[in-house]
Amino acid sequence: MEYKEGMSYTEYTHLSFAPSVPDAMDPRVMAWLIRRHGLEMTHLSRGSHIGSIFSVAEIMAVLYTRILRVRPDDPAWPERDRLILSKGHAGAAVYAALAERGFFPVETLRTHYQNGSHLSGHVSHRGVPGIEFSTGSLGHGLGVGVGTALGLRMDGLSSHTVVVMGDGECDEGAVWEACLQGHQYALDRLVAVVDHNHMQSLDFCENTLALEPLDDKFRDFGWFVQRVDGHDVDALENALRIAYAHQGTPSVIIADTVKGKGVSFMENDILWHYRTPQGEEYEAALRELEAQRP
Prior knowledge:
This protein is of the alpha/beta class. It has 11 helices and 7 strands. The chain has a single domain, classed as Thiamin diphosphate (ThDP)-binding fold, Pyr/PP domains (Rossmann fold). Helix content is 39%, strand content 11%.
């Protein structure tokens, strides 16, 4: 059936869908936990990128509670879905989701970005069950996703590969080379999600290198495109289910988000790309998040 904007999963396809290892946690609860852990992790480590961790929270929450086929007790399960966090600086969000899913003890999160810890500031697979690939140099994740998806197909596996990207890294030519290859090989089990928080490093994306119309750009490269509110867990789940069911081309979901979402004074403030929550700012952020506890 041809996709029409806003179509629900059940309208789009008659195929049944369910993660092979569903998680009972509500994605709204997981999103809150990602923010709460992220605040504490960056506070203790004096690490940065809290704005990006907060913007991607619902995306990670829906993926890890509703979509990805993974087994916490068997992280190397051959038929698992692969998630690649191309915007590796938001690694704390993935670490938090993995801990809450049971890949490793939640207490380990307190070691984030500390000397000797496996939980590095930019996401690393070394010593961390559930992490597929170490990232941090922006623009590389989608190319790795293309190779991963192609390899899985060659191995006869039905697993999906999901690449979570930042909008700023879409400035990189390597992203568009990967888009061409994804379409060339008709990798319909490759799904990209762009955390489109409209900011990168030191300014708004449009002031750095204009991206819009981003959805049209992906369409011109032959990708199946959906655009949703990246903080609406129901819309995200619906879009991801449709992307999983889509056939013939790779899919991209442009998730419009707010950098620093969840703490009023962090939202849409570029300072919180690098700023670390300490002192009164940490206490104020903590109060706001606690008031939102599901």
